[in-house]
Write a structure and sequence with these properties.
Layout: H1 2-11, E1 19-21, E2 29-30, E3 36-46, H2 58-76, E4 79-89, H3 103-117, E5 122-129, E6 134-144, E7 159-163, H4 168-182, H5 191-201, H6 207-216, E8 221-224, H7 229-240, E9 242-247, H8 259-264, E10 271-275, E11 284-285, E12 288-298, E13 306-310, E14 313-316
Parallel strand pairs: 4-5, 9-13
Antiparallel strand pairs: 1-2, 3-6, 4-6, 7-10, 7-12, 8-10, 9-12, 11-12, 13-14
Helix pairs in contact: 2-3, 2-6, 4-5
């Protein structure tokens, strides 16, 4: 009960515009503007699967937990309204160790800092003792009625775009694994190492870019790159009933990442979207670079769903990103 009160005090009681009533009652009460509809997403984070307690700082686990859901809202062009967190923890993660603050306190440092940055109040959830750490986040957003960005709108002739750079999170994860193999993970990273690991430990959801696209109705389809370009583009093609080709030379590969990490590495949380060839898009949206990387094609027998164009010609781009139970 004491921990619940502590979380409630840190999160506030729902003073944000969209939250009529927050933590404290059996349900939260949300309000949206006239002409909007709700967008709801949920993401599960499990210790040993999505994060490692001896690898990832608690602040990073909290940040990443919320970033996953915020990125889904960004992909739909939705503004965040509220977050709900169900948290299961072993008892030792709620206790101080020497002078160190409890893991759970630092988890909320990371989660609430990102929530504040995107004006997303924590409006409720659940708390339970668990043999392993589990965090299930629910994000509620709002989007103008009929204007949500979907995966199903891509058409032959559309160009394919991505925001930012690709492969950064995968490169950071590889560096983190190397660091863990050589030495215990330090409580605080050096600036150099911290900068290299930041795209993996603290990915930034592209809320501003998603809102920009939705408000202007320029994108024909969109999704976020959570599972890797090769896998997520295949999802978009499947939903739209089309094929695609990607120009390897056009990919905005993160400095220090490989082409394989750019194609298949997950958790970049950039936006991948399509737009008609006639659409004039800026080189940057909300100060973030936008790069055309390929084209949507008709689906035909014998044509791969997604092809990669290199200086050696075209070859099928098989989904090699993250897929549960694959």
């Amino acid at each position: 009960m004491a921990l619940l009160h502590q979380i409630r005090n840190r999160a506030g009681r729902g003073s944000a515009t969209g939250v009529r009533l927050g933590i404290g009652d059996d349900c939260a009460l949300l309000g949206v503007r006239p002409g909007e509809e709700l967008a709801v997403t949920t993401d599960l984070s499990i210790a040993g699967r999505h994060f490692q307690l001896d690898w990832h700082p608690a602040e990073s686990v909290g940040h990443r937990c919320l970033a996953r859901g915020l990125s889904d809202l960004a992909a739909m062009g939705a503004r965040p309204v509220a977050a709900f967190l169900s948290l299961g923890l072993p008892r030792q993660l709620t206790r101080s160790t020497g002078r160190a603050r409890p893991w759970v306190d630092r988890f909320f440092d990371g989660l609430l800092a990102l929530a504040d940055a995107h004006r997303t109040p924590l409006a409720g959830g659940d708390l339970a003792e668990s043999p392993i750490a589990v965090a299930d986040i629910v994000l509620v957003g709002a989007v103008p009625r009929g204007r949500a960005l979907l995966r199903s709108g891509a058409r032959p002739g559309d160009l394919i775009y991505v925001t930012g750079t690709l492969g950064a999170a995968a490169a950071g994860l590889e560096r983190l694994a190397q660091q863990r193999a050589a030495h215990p993970i330090p409580a605080r990273f050096s600036k150099t190492l911290g900068d290299l690991l930041a795209p993996h430990l603290y990915p930034q959801p592209r809320i501003a870019q998603g809102l920009w696209l939705a408000r202007r109705a320029l994108a024909s389809a969109a999704l976020d790159l959570s599972d890797g370009l090769s896998t997520d583009l295949a999802h978009l093609c499947q939903e739209s009933g089309v094929a695609a080709e990607v120009d390897a030379a056009a990919l905005p590969v993160y400095r220090g990442a490989t082409i394989e990490q750019a194609l298949h590495g997950g958790e970049d949380y950039e936006l991948l979207f399509t737009a008609p060839d006639s659409t004039r898009l800026p080189r940057a949206i909300a100060k973030l670079a936008v790069t055309p990387i390929g084209r949507i094609l008709p689906r035909r027998a014998g044509r791969p769903q997604v092809a990669l164009v290199t200086n050696k010609g075209k070859q099928p781009l098989e989904p090699q990103g993250w897929e549960h139970f694959s």
